[in-house]
């Protein structure tokens, strides 16, 4: 029978909120839950959901701490995934999520800019290109090609002034940091390599993710995103799983229509976009029959930003998955 591995390690999809400017921003990896995924069994269904909290107030110039330009940023996100094993080699998943809030707090609490709403729709097929099981080991290689379709708001606005005489309200477009989506259609390239030792309940695996960003209707093209992760995982007492990931990420610089004044229109300093980060991501999980709950947190130990930007700080996720067969398999 085809082997199967799904260990949800936050990266995607995340949903990772990458800074794209000191007071701007945008989605990095839209694969929420950062799922490091192989393929399901044929006709197997997986339902997944998680809650992610991000909070930061640290600013960097290059790789050095710098004075804050805002008091902080926080977001709370609910993510859902439906996956189905079309065949023993092909799995298709549909993923999306909802931001309870994305909030930017101005310096000395001078203002608060926030938004909420649905994010992106992800269509993500994965195909197992190599699989070999021996008496002592399991080996798999899976490739994926996904598509990100913006569903939520990318041009939400904030009230900046109300005329006390006429009552007329003036609005400005909110910075990308607090938009539920960046508004672009993106292509996702994915690779997953797995090596398991069943007798020892031990696994090592790696994944690669590259997101080719498109242009949005505002004349913005957020920087391409790439990440690579290396994992080691051990099952204890047959139900408890512990996993440690080392992850590297690169986000490219933002591009834009040269006829636009990005700083005036959207509060984006394009020279302060793009970053690099190395982090350690520990995870613990508990499985009972077909139901798994897990918790993880991302701890950056090195980050470098172009210009001056808000950096990464607290990022924590709590989630659950449930798997079952859509129809009973023969044999």
Q: Rough shape? A: elongated
Mean pLDDT: 86
Instruction: Give me the Rg, rounded.
Output: 21 Å
Find the count of extended strands (DSSP E, 2+ residues).
24
How much of the sequence lies in strands comes to over 45%
- What's the SSE pattern? EEEEEEEEEEEEEEEEEEEEHEEEE
Distance between the termini: 10 Å
SS-based structural class? mainly beta
> What's the story with the biggest beta sheet?
12 strands, antiparallel, barrel
As a percent range, the share of helical residues equals: under 10%
Q: List the uncertain runs.
A: 1-35
**Number of helical elements:** 1
Order of the strands making up the biggest sheet: 5-8-9-11-12-15-16-18-19-21-22-24
How would you concisely characterize the structure shown here?
The protein has 331 residues and is mostly beta strands.
Description:
The chain is an all-beta fold. It contains one helix and 24 strands. The strands form five sheets. Strands 5-8-9-11-12-15-16-18-19-21-22-24 form a twelve-stranded antiparallel β-barrel. A two-stranded antiparallel ribbon has the order 1-4. Strands 2-3 form a two-stranded antiparallel ribbon. The longest helix is centred in the last third of the chain and has 5 residues, at 262-266.
């Amino acid at each position: 029978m085809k082997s199967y591995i799904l260990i949800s390690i936050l990266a995607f999809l995340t949903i990772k909120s990458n800074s794209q400017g000191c007071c701007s921003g945008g989605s990095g990896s839209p694969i929420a839950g950062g799922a490091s995924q192989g393929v399901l069994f044929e006709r197997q269904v997986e339902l997944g959901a998680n809650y992610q909290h991000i909070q930061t107030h640290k600013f960097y110039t290059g790789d050095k701490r710098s004075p804050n330009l805002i008091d902080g940023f926080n977001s709370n996100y609910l993510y859902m995934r439906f996956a189905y094993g079309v065949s023993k080699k092909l799995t298709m998943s549909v993923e999306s999520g909802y931001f309870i809030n994305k909030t930017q707090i101005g310096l000395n609490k001078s203002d608060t800019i926030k938004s909420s709403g649905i994010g992106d729709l992800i269509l993500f097929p994965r195909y197992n290109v190599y699989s070999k099981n021996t008496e002592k080991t399991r080996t798999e290689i899976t490739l994926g090609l996904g598509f990100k379709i913006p569903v939520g708001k990318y041009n939400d606005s904030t009230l900046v002034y109300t005329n006390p005489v006429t009552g007329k309200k003036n609005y400005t477009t909110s910075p990308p940091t607090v938009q539920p989506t960046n508004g672009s259609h993106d292509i996702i390239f994915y690779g997953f390599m797995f090596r398991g030792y069943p007798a020892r309940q031990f696994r090592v695996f790696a994944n690669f993710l590259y997101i080719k960003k498109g242009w949005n209707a505002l004349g913005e093209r957020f920087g391409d995103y790439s990440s690579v992760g290396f994992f080691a995982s051990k099952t204890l007492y047959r139900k408890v799983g512990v996993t440690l990931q080392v992850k590297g990420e690169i986000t490219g610089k933002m591009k834009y229509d040269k006829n636009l004044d990005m700083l005036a229109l959207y509060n984006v300093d394009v020279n302060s976009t793009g970053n690099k980060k190395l982090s350690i991501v520990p995870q613990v999980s508990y499985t009972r029959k077909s139901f798994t709950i897990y918790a993880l947190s991302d701890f950056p130990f090195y980050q470098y930003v172009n210009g001056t930007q808000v950096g990464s700080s607290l990022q924590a996720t709590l989630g659950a998955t449930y798997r079952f067969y859509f129809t009973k398999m023969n044999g």
